[in-house]
Structure to design on (1772 residues):
């Protein structure tokens, strides 16, 4: 026969799979000798058996009874004893914390008989009847789904008739009678009087709540397996509501907001835990506890010190003081803000509790990214209008607009405020500084699209009643009209009225070299951990940069080179006219002339970047987009010409352009004449670029510099394409005096390049994965087209855990990457392999790339520190547990 | 020391790698005891050594001299003997026949001294001097690259002064003097008099011709490896030009045009082989040889019978008769027309020379495809205007147009005639019946695009002088003006004036059940081989069909089911209005109404197809294209609205549509909201289709039919997408009374579906590779955009051997297919795996699919017989040599 039930003393925190997180930590505290009320845990295995068979496994309740008897013996009280009853608390507790499941039933064991015993034993009849009515309400709601309102209505009616002191014992006894009637009417039978029946039903209800709709939905979104099951913790009741020498509280071993050392928490005298959660009365600080009950306070701080030494991390606890006796009800490693995470990790190293490797596990690169955003000056901020889901970080200030057309037409910064967004809102979202919606969460259309564009976004602000027709929204009785200023914080989800001043991030200033590491505690912690990450990481971090200014910024942020320098930006702005000449060239001579005119411009651009990155590699990608992208869009031009013709006017140059645009129009430009194809089809185009690179390099060498250009060929799918370009490159290089040899490599951004990487490596000095395009082609969707159209639905259905454009799809795209790395290196062991898609700056993706054995990632300059930290974490992760996403 | 030189008696045909094709077959004939002039072969290994080191390998010429001595002994003549000289012919001969290489130098060993010996020995002074001047000319041209014109000019000048009898011996001796001067002037030194020097130089020249530009280009295009090298055949000269009892000819063991039995060939009395090739004089039939020299004729027919028995196939030979003595100079398995291939293969089976399996190797599925095209009635055809490259098969008749706009505007059938085509010509190519160009070959833009569209095309008709400005083309002095009728044969490359009557193909009529197998020899042969293919093939052949008429046709052509029934065609035509309602539906009720209106139409369509394919599987694909494809294009609509607005008119419904089109516009619709994504985003769309299928099936069952529908989900990239659709399918099926269970499977047409096939198979009853989309995404190019823009360049550069849209790219796309088959079957061993892209009808691709272990291919109804034959060939190929492309 299996064992399904474990006394707290039998478990430990390593058994969270079996005991759930809460049960495992209760066991850990019990083993440490801390004052935990006696109790036991019904294992997740029992839950799984129950869910599989639809009934409790054989012997389960016998085991429960056995353990219950142990508690009775230890406490000298019997469950159901009408004179001095043992009461129980039942709490669910799975491996992962999970909203939507039944959580707690207190006071199990009370009935019409034992209520008198509780009154006698506590000497507080009012307390006893209040406990009984709490049990009926909680039991009815969580075991039988009776709406809380059905009970609350009666309580409110009673309260309306009583003074500020509240109902007395007699009134509460009457309320229990009313509650029992409500229960019977709603459930169809009387409230169960047998204490054991109450307990068994409570345990079954916890099991069944595993499959409650909200729980299933939550698991699907969070990718928690459906077959884990939950544990059930059964514990002797202790009471914080037995008078002024009782109370309940929560505490942290350090300040979870700033990381400042010292115990930190809230206390509520004469109250049960759920009163703290319900926020009915205001809590006081722990200092007040120290004043009221110095012994308990001292014991609590000692216990918390023990826990922190034991867990070697910030812990939070729930505790209750029953008539001067301290009981620990829960502990866990506590949540903290990003700033606190860095500060605490550095402190724990100082205190000798953890080493620097482990400290890297205590922070995430995502937290570092959050610390780099400018933030609102909270000292100067008013009360928020609302707090909702921070869906895309940043601090945005703008005037309220309610429709996309208005946003797109606005000349001042605006915040687009919508109930929810849809693909029609894209132009408005592009034009706005931020987006605020009243519906939807982190996977809503607004959230997905805003994150994709890097726009600040707050979602699901349900407190807002938005009325676009009237051009206003209301929060409570406050009205905000179109054109008024608001400020939204995409990190915390807060919405402020008016313009809140924005403070630059000290971390960003430090990273840019504007602050010394010792400037403050946070910056010092960031400096320390980032330095360690740099020391341990095997993955290089380069930046994607197209201009000398970007290159310099990247260098300050710690980039060890440029992994992607796009040459096409050098075709934009006032050079468009030259590009138009190139495109309209209708014979080889004019084509050559147009290219010759572009040569000195490209050369100067490249020389600037090589100078900014002197001594570091600069990977220069030959032109990638289709040429027609440099011309006006077809529909726009068609309309202009149609209008001119309808009015009998001469469309002029537009007519000429329209002919070219029509000829070059592509149904799917992403899959069209671009990249290496363009280079092989337009004679001299790549040659001109290679000449510009070679001449710029030669000039830098002549000037005493140390230029290290690399030439990268985009969109290769077959080794013969690369071989043809390489031949052209070598031919050009041979004609430029003073140009050193320049490595030639390829983007790996088509599935076929990855699948034939072994062949391609024969012609490539390096590979660089273009993970944006590789994701698009591997999944067969283009970011431009689908992120706004179906990604939110896919995220909600759980088809994506996260957008594959944010975090690399390790299963599909990642398989191609691993394959290409292995087969490329088999052909050419010294092959350098990097990644230059946007995933290069995503922490979870960086961890994947480190594991896949890449040499470097390349990302936007602002993400360089994030990638450095992620790479350091990945390096120490390879020898220990932990992932960036936890 | 290696052996580099092999006497003919030392080799055999299995050693073609070492001896080249020609050398191996000469050896084979020698071993059969046939009258081959004595000789030897310098191996490809010697050539490779020469090319690697830049000089002949040590001992090569010693070996040559040794073998030469053998010949001298055998013939009793010495090389260089001024009285009775042995003369030699030197011929190149690699593993594969290869134009662009040096081919032949005859009469090596003649010089100022031996010419007299030849005159004395032959008794023909004129012949001797003529041979000498031929040697100088051939040697100069092939060893030193002296332009042929330099010599021809002198010969022509001499001929102008002589009568019809031609120059006499004295005049030819004078010409030799002139030739020697030309040689010295062009080469820089005198014509080499030493016979051995001539021989060595000739051998070196053959070696070096391996790297001649044309040879390199040819190899690149044909994907012949560059490192094979060529062999050199050295053979004692025999002379067909020693008077009326001499001559030369070529012969086939059967008629290579029709396959009719009996020796067939051409003979030219008193001539050398190159005179036949040059076509200076008209040849006579072999019957004439029988009259002139019955003994030689008898010997020749016996030899050819021996060769055919020995090679068990049609052979062709070159032979020379020297004063009544027959010499065999070359043999090989002969080329033949598609019709002859089938007829001969069947005859060889009848004659017991080969079995049916081997007979399948003697034909190709591509030949069967050619036999299915209608052809011009050649009996009724005039002399062709020109014969050029047949680039895309078919017989097209139409009026000449010279520009695409005219073609697009034409109301009668037209042939587009261009010097060459470019992407601007696409609309014209779509509108025309056929395309005729004067430049470019099988890889030109015109050829590639025409094949992609199935348009008849003749390319590279260099005889045509096309003058679009004057609206005419000329061939010689014949002028053809715009609007005149011409007929072009895309199979043979012939261009006829006027309208040539088109005959339906008897093979196609047989396949469609309109002719009995015994109708004629060709049809009987096709029937026999195709029946055998059906008997041996393990690969099923289904058809892609969307209508009952197509389904019936496919069934007649031997399809064992429908592998792809596209439901989107059911949204076209007069149902567009319903689809517009669907798209414009702005609330769930209107959407449901629009879907309900489509339901009965879909149901009726599907019932018709299920009826036509009763008892056979019908794979019905849920709607795949993006919905906006059912609306007018954005540019067109924008122009209409712009025009209306410019004129102050109300754009009406166009305005409404434009809003929808703008909202749904996609930059890359191929990678947009389509397939399973559309099904998951538009509520009820797939559900309506599934209901239509289920109800149609139930009706067929009720009517006593045996419907076997399968539901196929397009564009799946993740198993969760498929799981979501399956859940919806099951839910709908449960509500349709009388509907049997229907298998649900998926297209595998995204790289990710292939990469995660092991997961996806858990939810799929079957896979069907959509190789069009899979090719597009694996290579990252869309057929619509690139086939006309850079494919011709890629084919010419040898980056593609053949368009990956014609023949499956086995390296890249094929790797994904093999991986998906293996991992899908690992999850679900009974998984059915097919292919429904256009590659399903391409013979080489079918061979790949058979090898990859697929269960069936599906192709257009007309390709079903082709796929059946290819599948049969693949089945026997797996146990023997041969491929469809040779």
């Amino acid at each position: 026969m299996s064992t399904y039930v474990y006394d707290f003393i039998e478990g430990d925190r390593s058994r969270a799979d079996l005991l759930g997180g809460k049960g495992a930590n209760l066991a850990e505290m019990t083993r440490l000798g801390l004052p935990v009320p006696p109790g036991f845990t019904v294992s997740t295995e029992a839950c799984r058996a129950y869910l599989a068979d639809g009934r409790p496994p054989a012997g389960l309740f016998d085991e429960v009874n056995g353990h219950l008897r142990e508690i009775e013996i230890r406490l000298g009280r019997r469950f159901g004893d009408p004179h001095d009853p043992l009461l129980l608390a039942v709490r669910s507790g799975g491996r992962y914390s999970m909203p939507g499941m039944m959580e707690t039933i207190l006071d199990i064991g009370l009935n019409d008989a034992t209520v008198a015993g509780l009154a006698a034993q506590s000497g507080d009849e009012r307390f006893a009847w209040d406990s009984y009515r709490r049990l009926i309400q909680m039991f009815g709601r969580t075991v039988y789904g009776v709406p809380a309102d059905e009970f609350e209505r009666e309580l409110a009616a009673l309260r309306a008739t009583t003074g500020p002191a509240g109902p007395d014992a007699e009134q509460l006894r009457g309320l229990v009678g009313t509650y029992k009637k409500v229960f019977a009417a709603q459930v169809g039978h009387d409230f169960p009087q047998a204490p054991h029946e109450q307990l068994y039903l409570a345990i079954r209800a916890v099991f069944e709540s595993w499959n409650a709709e909200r729980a299933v939905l939550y698991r699907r979104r969070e990718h928690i397996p459906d077959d884990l099951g939950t544990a059930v913790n059964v514990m002797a009741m202790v009471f914080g509501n037995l008078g002024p020498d009782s109370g309940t509280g929560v505490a942290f071993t350090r300040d979870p907001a700033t990381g400042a050392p010292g115990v930190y928490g809230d206390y509520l005298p004469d109250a049960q835990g759920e009163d703290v959660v319900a926020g009915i009365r205001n809590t006081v600080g722990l200092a007040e506890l120290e004043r009221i009950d110095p012994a308990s306070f001292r014991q609590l701080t000692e216990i918390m010190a023990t826990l922190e030494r034991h867990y070697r991390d910030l812990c939070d606890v729930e505790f209750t003081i029953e008539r001067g006796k301290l009981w620990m009800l829960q502990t866990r490693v506590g949540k903290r803000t990003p700033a606190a995470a860095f500060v605490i990790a550095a402190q724990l190293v100082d205190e000798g509790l953890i080493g620097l490797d482990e400290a890297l596990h205590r922070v995430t690169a995502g937290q570092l990214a959050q610390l780099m955003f400018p933030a609102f000056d909270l000292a100067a901020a008013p009360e928020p209008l609302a707090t909702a889901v921070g869906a895309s970080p940043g601090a945005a200030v703008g005037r309220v607009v309610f429709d996309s057309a208005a946003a797109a037409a606005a000349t001042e910064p605006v915040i687009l405020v919508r109930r929810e967004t849809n693909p029609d809102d894209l132009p408005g979202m592009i034009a706005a500084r931020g987006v605020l919606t009243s519906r939807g969460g982190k996977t809503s259309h607004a959230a997905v699209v805003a994150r994709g564009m890097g726009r600040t976004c707050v979602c699901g602000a349900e407190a807002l009643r938005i009325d676009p027709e009237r051009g206003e929204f209301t929060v409570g009785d406050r009205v905000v009209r179109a054109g008024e200023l608001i400020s939204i914080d995409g990190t915390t989800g807060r919405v402020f009225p008016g313009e809140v001043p924005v403070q630059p991030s000290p971390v960003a200033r430090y990273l840019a070299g504007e602050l010394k590491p010792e400037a403050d505690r946070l910056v010092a912690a960031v400096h320390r951990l980032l330095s360690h990450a740099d020391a341990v990481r095997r993955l290089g971090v380069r930046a994607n940069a197209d201009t000398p200014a970007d290159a310099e910024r990247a260098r300050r942020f710690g980039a060890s080179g440029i992994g992607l320098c796009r040459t096409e930006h050098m075709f934009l702005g006032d050079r468009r006219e030259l590009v138009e000449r190139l495109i309209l060239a209708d014979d080889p001579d004019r084509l050559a002339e147009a290219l010759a005119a572009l040569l000195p411009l490209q050369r100067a651009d490249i020389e600037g970047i090589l100078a900014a990155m002197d001594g570091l590699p600069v990977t220069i990608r030959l032109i990638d987009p289709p040429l027609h992208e440099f011309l006006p869009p077809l529909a726009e031009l068609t309309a202009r010409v149609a209008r001119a013709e309808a009015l009998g006017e001469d469309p002029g140059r537009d007519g000429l352009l329209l002919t070219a645009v029509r000829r070059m129009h592509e149904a799917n430009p992403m899959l069209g004449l671009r990249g290496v194809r363009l280079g092989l089809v337009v004679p001299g185009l790549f040659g001109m670029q290679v000449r510009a690179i070679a001449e710029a390099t030669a000039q830098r060498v002549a000037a005493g510099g140390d230029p290290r250009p690399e030439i990268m060929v985009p969109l290769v799918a077959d080794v013969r394409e690369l071989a043809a370009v390489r031949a052209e490159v070598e031919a050009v290089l041979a004609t430029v005096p003073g140009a050193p040899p320049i490595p030639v490599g390829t983007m790996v951004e088509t599935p076929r390049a990855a699948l034939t990487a072994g062949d391609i490596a024969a012609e490539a000095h390096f590979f660089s994965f273009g993970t944006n395009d590789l994701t698009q082609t591997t999944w067969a969707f283009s970011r431009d087209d689908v992120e706004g159209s179906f990604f939110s639905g896919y995220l909600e259905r759980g088809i994506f855990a996260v957008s594959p454009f944010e975090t690399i799809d390790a299963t599909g795209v990642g398989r191609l990457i691993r394959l290409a790395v292995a087969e490329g290196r088999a052909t050419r062991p010294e092959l350098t392999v990097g990644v230059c898609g946007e995933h290069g700056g995503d922490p979870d993706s960086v961890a994947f790339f480190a594991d896949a054995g890449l040499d470097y990632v390349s990302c936007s300059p602002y993400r360089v520190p994030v990638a450095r930290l992620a790479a350091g974490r990945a390096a120490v992760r390879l020898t220990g547990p932990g992932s960036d996403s936890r």
In short: The first strand of chain A starts at residue 5 and ends at 7.
